[in-house]
Amino acid sequence: MSRIAYVNGRYLPHERAQVSIEDRGFQFADGVYEVCEVRGGHLVDERRHMARLDRSLSELRIARPMSAAALSVVMHETVRRNRVRDGIVYLQITRGVARRDFPFPPEGTPRSVIVTSRSNDPAWLEQMAGEGIAVVTVPDIRWQRVDIKSVALLPNVLAKQAARDRGAREAWLVDAQGRVTEGASSNAWIVSRDGTLITHPLGRDILPGITRSVVIDVARAQGLAFEERAFTVEEAYAAREAFVTSAGQIVMPVVSIDSRPVANGAPGLVASALRRDYHRHAEFS
Ligand code: PDD
What we know:
Layout: E1 4-7, E2 10-13, H1 24-28, E3 31-39, E4 42-43, H2 46-59, H3 68-81, E5 87-94, E6 112-119, H4 122-131, E7 133-139, H5 154-165, E8 170-174, E9 179-183, E10 187-191, E11 197-199, H6 210-221, E12 226-228, E13 231-232, H7 233-237, E14 241-246, E15 250-257, E16 260-261, H8 269-281
Parallel strand pairs: 7-8, 7-15, 11-12
Antiparallel strand pairs: 1-2, 1-6, 3-4, 3-5, 5-6, 8-9, 9-13, 10-11, 10-14, 14-15, 15-16
Helix pairs in contact: 6-8
The protein binds N-(5'-phosphopyridoxyl)-D-alanine.
């Protein structure tokens, strides 16, 4: 079955789904995106994703192309047409098509809207969560507004490839003070020796992960000690546990950092319990 994409009002097989060479997403990475988990054919935490999308659009002064209700219909329809039960739905909005020129195009230029969806293999993800993943640290060379979920992801691409080159699944980005900001495509967490759950505070230097916000709810419900503060690479090496969060993988235990085992090198109890309880705190639509 050929995959179906929504592109500017039409549902098309991927082979025929196209955007213009003058799309500002292509020319300038002038656009934003969202990735939402699909589980049992439902969208997970759509409302939180749509709220973040609105914020990304407004920070970049891109007018919303359609109502939240209309976008919701398109996302659900794309999931349905692709027969995705478990996977993700991807939404991208760019400032539209215009002659290549740096300032914004004339007001009223239609924004481009693209939605795709694809399945993942829950058994494979569960297996990976049972084994844990390796991460490596790399300098965080991104711009100063990474709280906006923009499609300008070149530093993330390079970081992720550096991880792959070193046999790891994720890169942890490290600021000039030696502190971990987040992963190349995930938020970063540790559990300290005294059992405190720690993740970087919100601000302009991390993406406000939706999974991160739900995990905080789960941690509170489980009565875990929790601190929002930056942690150093050294602290991470010495941690009792580490893990990453993102829509695609929910809570994924980290078992090695720069080839050093985290504690005994097996997924931790806190990460596993957060993963187990996650969907009880998520919203399905
Ligand atoms: N990435 N930080 C970065 C830099 C990310 O790219 C992501 C998500 C996250 C986690 O956010 P959330 O919990 O809302 O998925 C944090 C998505 C999945 C991606 O680019 O594919």
